[in-house]
UniProtKB/TrEMBL annotation:
GO annotation terms (biological process): DNA-templated transcription initiation
Pfam families in UniProt: Sigma70_r2 (PF04542), Sigma70_r4_2 (PF08281)
Transmembrane parts of this sequence: none
Residue ranges of domain RNA polymerase sigma-70 region in the record: 22-88
Record-given protein name: RNA polymerase sigma-70 factor, ECF subfamily
């Protein structure tokens, strides 16, 4: 079995077999990234294919370190670019005066599966979902998110707080309906 380094070297040489192996190695994880930023499988597939083309096209710019992190960044950036091109912002107001509030009872999340949580995240309004994914899942800070999306840092904080609140309410309804 080839190592990741050998597969990358083969891709840089234009070997189709190496490109197929790289695609197979990362396709599931990167498709999951794409689906977190879209409303439909069709949109996710568009982003997925566009991002993989970028990976192969810019492979020479990879300089070491976590290859998966490098690939993931291309996929996230492609998803954000797609979001910019195809969405009207659902948040235009600068909420910089709003303080971030974390809802109490976050331990509700530990009672559901990861798959259930992903389904709930995908039901968030578009602006909430993008910021929640960037902050919670991808680990970007509010300053980075504000630069990526072209919004105020306070807006990012506000949207995250609203996303958490929305998820909490949904989880509480979920928890109540299970007990009935």
């Amino acid at each position: 079995m080839q190592t990741e380094e050998e597969i990358i070297a083969g891709c840089k040489q234009g070997k189709a077999a190496a490109q197929e192996k790289l695609y197979t190695l990362y396709s599931r994880r990167m498709m999951a990234v794409c689906t977190r930023y879209t409303k439909s499988r069709f949109e996710a597939e568009d982003i997925f294919h566009e991002a993989f083309v970028k990976v192969f096209k810019h492979l020479d710019s990879y300089n070491g370190g976590s290859f998966e992190g490098w690939v993931r960044r291309i996929f996230v950036n492609t998803a954000i670019n797609h979001w910019h091109q195809n969405r009207k912002y659902e948040f235009q107001t600068d909420y910089s005066t709003v303080e971030e509030s974390t809802p109490a009872g976050d331990d509700i999340i530990s009672s559901i599966s990861g798959q259930e949580l992903l389904l709930l995240i995908n039901q968030l309004p578009e602006g909430y979902k993008v910021i929640f994914n960037l902050y919670v899942v991808e680990g970007y800070n509010h300053r980075e998110i504000s630069e990526m999306l072209g919004i105020a840092e306070g807006t990012s904080k506000s949207q995250l707080a609203k996303a958490k609140s929305h998820l909490k309410k949904t989880l509480q309804k979920h928890s109540i309906s299970e007990k009935c």
